[in-house]
Structures are given as C-alpha cells and as structure tokens.
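Same chain as my last thread, 236 residues:
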Amino acid sequence: MASLSEEIYRKGLELFEEGKYLEAEPYLREVIRQNPKYADVQNKLGVIASMKGELHRAVEYFEAALKLNPFYTEALLNLAVTYNELGEFQKAQEAFQNARQLAISGKKNIDPYLAGKLANEHFKLGNLYFDMDLYEDAIDEYRKALNLRPNLPDVRVKLGMAYRSTGKIGLAIQEFTAAKEINPNFVQAWIQLGITYYMQGHAGLAVEEWKKALEINPGLKEVKIYLSLLKAEDMS
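reply #2:
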C-alpha cells in the first residue's frame, strides 16, 4: 500500500499535468512538508511560484531541486529563465550553459514522473512474485523499483520482508530501518522490524518497535495482539 505522501504526490501530479496549478500547489507543498527529497516536486513548485510572480521563491525551489539532482536539466532551464526575469543575467547565463553542458555530456535524467510510474510497475510485479513465494524474483523487482525511486518506504518494507523470508536478516533490518528514516510515520516499518527482532529472539527490541508503532497509530489491533501474546509468553 502506498504511503500517505505517495497518494498526495500522485494527486498533486495529476492536477499539475491537467494544468490546474493552483489546485496542485497545496498537495505538492504537503508532499515536500512530509519529505523534501522529491526533486520533481520542488521543480513543479518552482514553476507554480514563477507563474504567480513569486520569482525569488521560484529560485529557491529550482535550486532545491538541483541540490537533490544536479543533472536535472529542466530545473536548470527553469532557473535560467527565472534569473533572467529577475535581471540577474550572469546567473541566468551560467544556468543556461550548465544545462547545455549536461546535454553535450550525454547525462541522462529520466523524467521523475515516468520514473515513479515505472517504479510502481516493478513494485507490483515484485508483490506478485512475493505472493507466490518467489522471493528472489521479488527482491530483484523491488531493487529495480528502488533504483528508480529510492525513497519509497513501502517498497523498502516489502524488500525487507522478502530478505527475511530468504534468511537475509541483516539486510532485512537495514531495509526496515531505512524505511523508518524515510518516513518515521510509516507504521509497517516499525511493525515488521519488531517481527524480525522477535523471530531472532530479541523480545525486548521487538516490544520497543511495536510500542512505537502504537504511538503512531493507537488503533493497530495486530500490534496489540502481538504485545499481549508476548506478555502471556513471558508469564508462562
């Protein structure tokens, strides 16, 4: 299941692609609030700011996009245009020349939206393999998805589960931990890490993860059951 930020991200992109820029803006801002590491969202917010005449803010967005992805040609071109409109012609020329150099060097920058769609297809295929217990194939698909979009916590959690199913516990823990770092509110990362610790005999660590999951979402029935069973196990 996609995280909340992913759902908001898709809605914002949909509105942006339809030319409904002002409607898209609050969705895209919320994505950045939750996770500022979306270069394409920073670029799109820059486009919107520029259209609204907020040129200095647009520059901030474009520069943020380029900090995340220095090979983002579209953001460089947008930055060049915005600097030109601000009368900062030297900076505009530098950005424009940098974009040209990227084109000459042959650096490829897959469109972030297309990368997201392709990553989602790999994720779905990985889930099919996972459901058929073909874990190595699932791992391969999840890795392909993360090569395109590394900041997807749901993909990292499923990759961790696939690693765990093949006995690669250390790699599983790495993925669950990475998912928590990407989105600390993604409860499945805490739940699955707790399960992994429990399976390894580390009940105390499991309890810590599950209690944190309940702090995030007190309505997690499965986690309450895990804790109850663990408590009964200790008393027996």
